[in-house]
Every structure is written in structure tokens, then in C-alpha cells.
Amino acid sequence: MSPAGAAFMRACTSAFTSVRTTAVEGTGALDERTHVPLARHVQDVRVALALPGREHPFVDRHLRVGLPAPSPWPRLADVLVAPLEPLEQLESDTVDALAAEHPGAAVVAVHRSTRVCLLRLGPYGSDAVLLTLTARHAALHPWQTWASLAHAWLVAQAEAPEVPEPPPSSSGRSR
User: Fold this and answer.
1) Among 8, 51, 99, 164, which is most exposed with the fewest C-beta within 10 angstroms?
2) Can you give the C-alpha Rg of the chain in angstroms?
3) Residues 85-96: what's their mean pLDDT?
4) Separation between Cα atoms, residue 36 and residue 57, nearest integer Å
């Protein structure tokens, strides 16, 4: 992860105070593979952040949809979370394509189990930030929680802390 991405994640985690999810009723469809109701993939999420310089916690409420989910839920998602297909490569193009298919989603997360997740912050058509999360992040919070934290951070228009540039090497050569 880049130094800026690492600083963003540290700041996001330190500001995070609570998250509450509620399944949205009435989705009605079943997952074709597992035959589990897809309602568990559509969630009303409330995230509270304690941000510097603000007297009260910032509260963000959004719709998080995990794919696969029945129509119209993916089109309505503020946050979209999708597992990577088994043979598909996890690249920025994969996340960008999903964002293009769902332009209303401010955060798109694509993951390969608990090993790696790409988070795209910013709706399609905007200058997006792409963050790579690893198994260390998954050990702290599930990918869905990271995606919701990122959404709350975007909505709060919170600034990531400045990350100082590493000092240049004195010899001019790297070993």
C-alpha cells in the first residue's frame, strides 16, 4: 500500500467509533449457488466517525450491496462489494469496470477471499482513489466494513493526514 493509502487507513480506523448494519427486507430472491436469501447482501449501514475538530461524531447512513444481488439493489448501492470470480485477475480495470456498471456507487470493493481487496473511492466519472487492502486489514475488519468506513470518510469530506515524503538517499544511489 502507498504511504498515503496507509495513512488514510490509519486515520480512518482511529476515527471509527461504530458501525451498525440492518438487512433490507423484501429483496425476496435466492442466491442461485447457495439458495440463501439475498436480503443478507443488501444492508442499510450506519457508521459513526469521531473526527478531529468536530464536537460530535459524524454519522453516515448508506446502502451497501454485496454482489450477487437482485435488481434493482446494485443500481441503488452507495457501496458495492463483490467477490472476485475464481479465474479473474484482481486489477484496477476490474474495479473500474464494476464502477462503470454501477455509477451511483461512491465506493466499490472487489476482493479475493480474505487475502486482498481493491477499494475504489469516488463514483465513476470522478477522480478516484484506489487502495489495496491485505490480509492484515481483513484481520481487523471485514472488507464490507472497510468499504463502509471509506464511504463515511468520503461523505464527511475528511482529509487524510499529510504523509511526509521519505528523505532522499545521501549517496544518490540505492543499494
Assistant:
1) 164
2) 17
3) 79
4) 36
